[in-house]
Amino acid sequence: MVKVGLTGGIGSGKSEVARRLAERGAVVVDADKIAREVVEPGTSGLALIVTEFGPEVLREDGSLDRERLGKIVFADSAKLARLNAIVHPRVGERVAELQRAAPPDAVVVYDVPLLAENGLAPMYDVVIVVDASDATRLARLTGARGMDEQDALARIRAQASREDRLKIADIVIANEGDLDALEERVSEVWARLCERRDAAETPRA
User: Fold this and answer.
1) Does 77 show up as a binding residue in the annotation?
2) What does it do (predicted)?
3) Are 46 and 40 in contact (CB under 8 A)?
4) Is 15 known to sit in a ligand binding site?
5) In whole angstroms, what is the distance from residue 164 CA to residue 166 CA?
6) Would you place residue 203 in the very low, low, confident or very high pLDDT band (cuts 50, 70, 90)?
7) How confident is the model over 84-125, as pLDDT tens digits?
8) Domain 1-26+106-199 -> CATH class
9) Domain positions in the chain
10) Which of 37, 30, 35 has the alpha carbon at shortest distance from 15?
């Protein structure tokens, strides 16, 4: 098994890279998706968030209003830390379950937005950083996603800097261009990951 940590700032295209790696056969563990699962209605995670931030972070149907919560925590580092203390341990437990279920010869890609922020690079055999400039990411967030510019900037600033992410990268996927260029680069990276997996599986004489 090759354990790959995949990260990138919001708007970098990390999720698109994860999707393309999955198409090629990677087992993708999506930390964002798991983070949503551990705060669904009826979970202890959601109950603790309501206790910490108040019932105003709930929608009428009892689910978490992620946009409202985001505006609260991304503008206040202490509140963000309190939210992470609730969510991250629960995500970690679920990730460990999925890892145990993966085939022993798998390339397992952990899609982890806060890999750099939480010092998680040593957990992986390979760290891939999807990289785009802050200006490109802001344009994507305010354009394709329709996000308010100040909200988008707050989210970018709440994450690690571009430089800090690049420091932990074993492989960088630059994503400033079009999807054809991204597809070509993902193919190159997938070939490298498969070579590493196959080398690890080959018994030494």
Assistant:
1) no
2) Catalyzes the phosphorylation of the 3'-hydroxyl group of dephosphocoenzyme A to form coenzyme A.
3) yes
4) yes
5) 5
6) low
7) 999 989 988 998 888 888 898 999 999 988 899 989 999 999
8) alpha beta
9) 1-26+106-199, 33-105
10) 30
